Amino acid sequence: MKRTVHTDAAIIGGGIAGLWLLNALRGAGYGAVLLESHRLGSRQTLASQGMIHGGLKYALGGLPSRASETIASMPGRWRACLDGDGELDLSSLKPASEHTYLFAEASGLGPLSALLASKVLQSGAQRLQAEEFPALLRTEAFKGVVYRLNDFVLDPVRLTERLANLGAPHLYRAPQIDRIHDGADSARIEIGNLRIACRRLILAAGAGNEALLQRLGLPVAMQRRPLQQVVVRHPTAGPAFGPFFGHCLTDLKGAEPRLTITSHQSERGGPWLWCVGGRLATGGTERSVAKQREFARSELSACVPWIDWREAEIECFRVDRAEPQQDRGQRPDEAFAEVQSSCIVCWPTKLTLTPDLGQKVLAFMPPPEHPEFPALDLPPATVGDPPWTT
Known about the structure:
single chain; 390 residues; alpha/beta; FAD/NAD(P)-binding domain; D-Amino Acid Oxidase, Chain A, domain 2; 2 domains; eight-stranded mixed beta sheet; 9 helices
């Protein structure tokens, strides 16, 4: 005999999308449960650099894009959550950095200089004087320009932990789903002797959505845009290799920053490391690990030449950005949510767009009928580890 429990929504996937949606639904009066096959955040979310940005970096190509317009309101919505007045209460979460920076050698900006000046005025960012530079750039060896953006940075581990605490005890680990069925008005999930009957089945599993869509026979296509990001540890650089959050635009080619740098600690109070993305990561997918390490060392030497990078320890990790299929595999402009029968298929496409995803999914939900959800005989889902600790 199977035990059947009823709920308004069952969410598959415990990354930023699933965790946000679980809490948003419960806050709106819905009964909801989340099932994660591995550990919370362990695919894309904990590999994120955590930047909550307003889209200025998307305008670096010179033309406004739909993405830059869609994303412009996101920092304000996240700020409201951090202040305890937004869609979710994240008031106990403090930003890893209140600002991010754009920097470039003055001779390396070229025609981008005039564009940056105009975009900065529109965004409310500021060009800094030398005495206002962040510590990394406060050296006579740097002869360039620095802009301070209103974008801020959240530690992806702390963010995942906060959302998991808010969602407890409705987070469960389910390594294998025996059966999954999608009907016109409801769906069913079977795990051993447990049957979960839900009015909406929400697929929020990132790259895992691909197999779920095939299993359910739903006509939604997914794409993957891979990255090979770099983790840098520097045992001898001293204070110069401290926390920094920003983008290098020196000799920029195209609309993507040459380097995007965020700083993290493997353990609280431990030494800092850099996670480096940008064009280095998107262009590194065809390189071997050895070639990517070599190229990263040369890029760091070109962009931050006043640090000796020969002693730096450089590691690489790969991650696939999972998204709805786009023409020519381009980056989606906004969060994606689509109803298929009783399923809602969704991808946030970027961490910063998660509140937009929550709003879209809530618009697809019928009125709640099962606000309470009983405890399940499944192990609890726990938060995973970021790639730089493993």
